[in-house]
Amino acid sequence: MSLHALVLAAGSARRLAGPVPKQYLPLAGKPLLRCSVEALAAHPAVCQTTVVIRDADREMYNRAVADLEDLTSPIIGGDERQRSALNGLEALAAAAPDQVLIHDAARPFLSVALIYRLIGALDRADGAIPALPVTDTLKRSHDGAVLATVPRADLWRAQTPQAFRFDAILEAHRVHADAKMTDDAAIAEAAGLSVALVAGDEDNIKVTTAADVARAEHILASQRPAPLDVRVGGGFDVHRFGPGQRVTVCGIAIPHDRGLIGHSDADVGLHALTDAVLGAIGAGDIGQHFPPDDPRWADASSDHFLGHAARLVRERGGRIAHVDLTLICEAPRLGPHRAAMIARVAEILALRPDRVSIKATTTERLGFTGRGEGIAAQALATLHLPDDGPA
Ligand code: MG
């Protein structure tokens, strides 16, 4: 089944009192038309999207859809919506799609699920439209006075896109080209086609008034992923060399003619990383969480400290985006152990290895690291925390 989408954007209505037709009005910087086109073109079931425009709007159209791929050349519409739909359908006839979606450009919030509901209903009808029940009581009035209450049972509000078997709706539009209808389902009904209702979507609004623009912005904000609070923390640590045959750096035992002195395993790399992560969430430093005079931490493996800091981040609903560690010493040579160290830190933090950076450098024989008295490490951790509002 091939499904093509037709977007009607040839209206000239400037109901929002401005120089720009409403389908080109920006919603968070993006024209309504572009929102509609993107939603259709990105849908897995839609093979091709074509837009019907006014000739006078060509420039605006080109700007609105700039660098969108898979879009065919626009079709020029007519003065009436119905004529524009017919022009569009005639232009698609060469491609002979099985089904077509006809959509008003000023409805920017058509959902993936809505389109699937419409396509599904074409199994049992010639056409399908999204609709919502009327829940307000309806009045007929004249000159500000109520004439009658209109029974609302069986009344529905029709939306777009509307889906049809292509041949059937093209023929219906040709036959009823001179009838004045406000949607394509009305043409289908006039032609005796069957039209099914599927559940519409309250967010699938038509942007017509200034109040609609405000509502559209509200809907857009509710669809946007929650803003992030990006934090960066720094950590620094030094351990002095003493007697021993190996040093432990980033969880990896590295043979050397000295060891590192410290209360725990003296893993200078993991200590700097732990302080960076704690710093990013404002949770003090490693000494507050694991006091050096507490016998529990004597000779402790430092992965416990870093794992604890990562757990505090998760408890705040956050995640670590990246860590970057610089190790500073003349010896031992750390470069050959870099891959193993990255793999171990990634494992402790439950991160992909490409989110862990470990570098080694010397200080050109200057200072305490240059004299071979110990190893220094400095770390940066970048975190994403849920945004908890203004600072
Ligand atoms: Mg330390």
The CATH architecture of the largest domain can be given as Alpha-Beta Complex
Number of helices: 12
Please compute the radius of gyration using only Cα atoms.
33 Å
Total number of beta strands: 19
The best one-word shape is elongated
N-end to C-end Cα span: 53 Å
Largest sheet: 8 strands, mixed
- Beta-strand proportion: 25-35%
Q: How would you classify the helix and strand content by structural class?
A: alpha/beta
What name does CATH use for the topology of the largest domain?
Spore Coat Polysaccharide Biosynthesis Protein SpsA, Chain A
Q: Which ligands, by name, code or SMILES, are bound?
A: magnesium ion
Write structural notes for this entry.
With 391 residues, the protein is an alpha/beta fold. The protein folds into 2 domains: 3-223, Spore Coat Polysaccharide Biosynthesis Protein SpsA, Chain A; 228-386, 60s Ribosomal Protein L30, Chain: A (2-Layer Sandwich). It is 30% helix and 28% strand. It contains 12 helices and 19 strands. The chain has helices spanning 32-41, 58-64, 81-93, 112-121, 166-175, 184-190, 210-223, 268-280, 286-289, 303-315, 338-349, 367-370, and strands at 3-9, 26-27, 30-31, 48-53, 75-76, 99-104, 127-133, 138-142, 145-150, 156-158, 162-165, 195-199, 228-242, 246-249, 252-255, 259-260, 319-328, 356-361, 374-386. Strands 1, 4, 5, 6, 7, 10, 11 and 12 form an 8-stranded mixed sheet that branches. It has a 5-stranded mixed sheet with strand order 16-13-19-17-18. Strand 2 and strand 3 (30-31) form a beta hairpin. Helix 3 crosses helix 5 (166-175) and helix 8 runs parallel beside helix 10. It is elongated. The mean pLDDT is 93.
